[in-house]
Amino acid sequence: MNKQEYLLAIDKEIQKADSIVILRHELPDPDAIGSQIGLKKIIEATYPNKTVYALGEMNDDLAYIGTMDTISQEVFDASLIIVNDTANTPRIDSPYEVNPSEVIKIDHHPDRDVYGKISYVDTTASSTSEILCQFVFNENSPWKVNEEVANALYAGIVGDTGRFLYPATTTVTFEMVSKLLEFPVKISEIAYHMITNPVSVSRLAGYIYQNMDISENGVAITILSQEQLKEFGVEEHQTHGVISLPSTVEGVYCWCLFVEQPDGTYRCNLRSKGPIVNEIAANHGGGGHPLASGAVVKSLEEVHQMSEELNESSKKFLASLNK
Questions:
Q1: Is CATH 2.30.30.100 what the domain over 3-195 is classified as, yes or no?
Q2: Which GO molecular function, any one, fits this protein according to its record (predicted)?
Q3: Fewer CB near the terminus (10 Å): N or C of the chain?
Q4: Over 131-191, what HEC string results?
Q5: Nearest-angstrom CA–CA distance, 20 and 4
Q6: Distance CA 290, CA 288 (A)
């Protein structure tokens, strides 16, 4: 099916449902919340007689995009389930068990799990929010857009493009943003929410700049322990605000922030300016985009193993530049 056919197929399922639940991945980022809230507001604007819920755990720092709902198991079981921005089923954030074969999937990540009775995946899109823009601004789209939709989707696009710095930003991205800006989008307010950090996170940023380990292959590694998080007074989810810091350092081509979890595992955030990192993430049970991926590893030994793999990837990348 082409994009128009997918849109109509998804819309047909929505029309048949009285109640719709929209889910996304755990530990959400602006695109996860933006696409979730954006789709909720699209459906509410298009079909006012339908009830739409957005579910999942969320931290206060993303509440400017929208808030989550609470429903019963009975309501959940009677609802159409749509999952946004989630490549594999273990990462679906839901208070109740999800049947992957019965959901609608909308995503821009490379498939880790092929699931959903309807699955629309466009890896050329900068974000799932951009995909929803393409749907709603399609010439023959039945869906409606309003100020709430525009603000949520704009936040999602800005978040996943790193404020339009990442390679996934395309002419289509800017075309969709230009259409969103026909509505009263709170550009400055959204930007300030994204760039403003608590004092504790700012102090952690200083620590990372001073202590990141930079290899001869341009790989920057930072490991944060539970003890260090407590020392700085930083919650694990707040470390998202410091992931991109090594990108500003000359000579760094890829980097990873390893954050120790209470159970002793490490959440890995891999980013790159060229070396491929999603294959490395996949080797350790994770995944994502070629230049931005994540995983969870079981031990400090595996952290060092992943660091070695990043160095090998960066070494090959640098060799290719010198050919």
A1: no
A2: nucleic acid binding
A3: C
A4: HHHHHHCCCCCCCCCCHHHHHHHHHHHHHHCCCCCCCCCCHHHHHHHHHHCCCCCCHHHHH
A5: 21
A6: 7
Domain 199-322 grouped into CATH 3.40.50.720: no
Half-sphere exposure of 254 (CA within 13 A, CB side): 29
Which positions ≥6 away from 282 have C-beta within 8 Å? 112, 293, 295
- Give residue 147's pLDDT: 98
Quick check: 322 pLDDT over 80?
A: no
- Judge whether residue 288 has pLDDT over 90: no
Q: Provide the token pair at 64.
A: 């400017």
Strands 292-297 and 19-25: unpaired
144, 153, 92, 88: which is closest to 126 by C-alpha? Answer: 153
pLDDT band per the 50, 70, 90 thresholds, residue 295: very high
Look at residue 286 in the predicted model and tell me its pLDDT: 87
- pLDDT tens column, 96-107: 999 999 999 999
What tokens does 13 get? 């399922």
Per DSSP bridges, beta strands 118-121 and 104-107 are: parallel
CA distances 6 to 36, 106, 279, Å, are 18, 10, 29
Euclidean distance between CA atoms 144 and 142, whole angstroms = 7
How far, in Å, are 33, 123, 223, 232, 238 from residue 228 at the CA level? 28, 36, 10, 6, 13
- The answer on pLDDT for 166 being more than 90 is no
The residues spanned by each domain of the chain are 3-195, 199-322
Average pLDDT over residues 182-210: 95
| Separation CA 7–CA 120 (nearest Å) | 9
Q: Say what the pTM is.
A: 0.89
**b/e string for 103-129 if b means 16 or more Cβ within 10 A?**
bbbbbbbeebbebbeebbbbeebbbbb
**Can you give the pLDDT at residue 111?**
85
